[in-house]
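dumping this here so i dont lose it
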């Protein structure tokens, strides 16, 4: 007997109807726009503050903008300022950032002003952290609080997914990154209906967030490295070696994370932990130079603009210092994410590989190294591939990265994550 074409094939989930999906579009678009505006607002405020702290103020005082003394003073002062907020502001700027990742907890509204304030202070003051984790936490909390009141029939988990997707789309300027993250998160869950049904509303939110960011700030991750043609056998070998080495380097920070966090935690008080972290970061900045400050996106563009402008030793120093700065900043209580600083670590390491072995194309070295470091630090396979690929506008690079991810993943899978439980033990 012929099978009814209107019935789902055996073993497949029934698809959702258009009538069920259409009502999700407007809330998703609203969430996407708002998440982007929150990100853009915090970023704009941080840029203005950074300009005042690192240009206007030292110029007025007659001090070198990135002199060792000024970097040390500013990072220490940032630790004091963030410590005061964490200590005194209601909600203490949220939970210990070492215990959070891209999947953010829903926080009370009273916590959000302090979290936004310390995020802007960190972005402006120089610690090596990005905005992703705290901004996702803020947007998730706002979406759940307002969404539950405006659309009480929508499940809380739906608002969380929309806010995460919208923020990730805004951060990377494309909804593709959000779709990859959500697909990876859904892989371990029972999905009702087909996968694309579950992605429909989050993809709309991510698209709205990405488009809003693009219209306002025109972000670009392309480093404009020397053009890369079709991959050859030497490029494949280089990508395999560099990605694996980068994953091993990233795992050094992952294994050190609980111990460094424990050392700062023994200080017990935020007015001891954060200023102490600022002092250590100031010392690291003195070693690595001003390019190892901040979240790292503007700095990697400066590195990539002149791949042969530094020696292998200088690239190696920047790689190690930035990774150490990321480790310290994430351990001592500064609020921020680890993706963007990890991109700097990978970029510097990839250019170091090119400086050591000129036959390693800069684009291959950078993309493979970023892939390896991100796999170790984030354990997000699709995001790692995506970020590594968008740094180099070359279709041939994606094939190399997919192959290079295999040995790198074998080195990191099943091992501790760069995220801790509340008791200080590593997440696996």
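and the seq i came up w/
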């Amino acid at each position: 007997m012929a099978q009814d074409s209107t019935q789902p094939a055996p073993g497949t989930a029934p698809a959702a109807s258009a009538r069920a999906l259409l009502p999700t579009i407007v809330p998703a678009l609203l969430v996407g726009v708002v998440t982007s505006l929150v990100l853009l607002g915090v970023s704009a405020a941080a840029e203005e503050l950074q300009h005042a702290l690192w240009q206007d103020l030292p110029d007025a005082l007659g001090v070198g903008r990135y002199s060792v003394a000024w970097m040390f003073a500013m990072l220490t002062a940032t630790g004091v300022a963030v410590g005061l907020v964490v200590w005194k502001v209601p909600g203490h700027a949220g939970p210990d950032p070492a215990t959070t990742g891209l999947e953010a907890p829903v926080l009370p509204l009273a916590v959000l002003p302090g979290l936004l304030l310390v995020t802007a202070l960190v972005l402006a003051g120089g610690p090596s952290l990005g905005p992703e984790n705290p901004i996702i936490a803020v947007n998730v909390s706002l979406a759940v609080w307002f969404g539950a009141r405006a659309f009480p029939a929508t499940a809380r988990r739906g608002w969380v997914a929309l806010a995460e997707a919208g923020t990730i789309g805004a951060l990377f300027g494309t909804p593709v990154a959000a779709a990859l993250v959500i697909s990876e998160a859904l892989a371990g869950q029972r999905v009702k209906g087909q996968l694309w049904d579950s992605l429909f509303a989050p993809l709309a939110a991510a698209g709205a967030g990405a488009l809003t960011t693009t219209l306002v700030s025109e972000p670009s991750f392309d480093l404009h490295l020397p053009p890369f043609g079709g991959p050859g056998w030497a490029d494949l070998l280089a990508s395999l070696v560099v990605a694996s080495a980068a994953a091993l380097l990233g795992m050094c920070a992952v294994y050190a994370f609980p111990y460094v966090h424990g050392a700062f935690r023994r200080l017990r008080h935020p007015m001891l932990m954060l200023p102490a972290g600022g002092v250590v970061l100031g010392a690291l900045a003195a070693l690595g130079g001003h390019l190892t400050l901040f979240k790292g996106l503007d700095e990697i563009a400066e590195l990539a603009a002149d791949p042969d402008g530094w020696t292998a030793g200088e690239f190696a120093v920047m790689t190690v210092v930035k990774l150490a700065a990321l480790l310290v900043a994430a351990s001592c209580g500064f609020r921020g994410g680890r993706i963007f600083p990890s991109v700097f670590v990978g970029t510097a390491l990839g250019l170091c590989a090119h400086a050591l072995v000129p036959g390693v194309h800069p684009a291959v070295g950078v993309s493979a190294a970023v892939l390896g470091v991100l796999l170790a630090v984030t354990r997000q396979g699709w995001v790692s591939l995506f970020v590594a690929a968008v740094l180099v506008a070359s279709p041939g690079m994606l094939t190399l990265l997919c192959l290079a991810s295999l040995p790198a993943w074998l080195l990191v899978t099943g091992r501790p994550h760069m995220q801790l439980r509340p008791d200080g033990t590593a997440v696996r």
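Confidence is low (pLDDT under 50) at residues 1-6.
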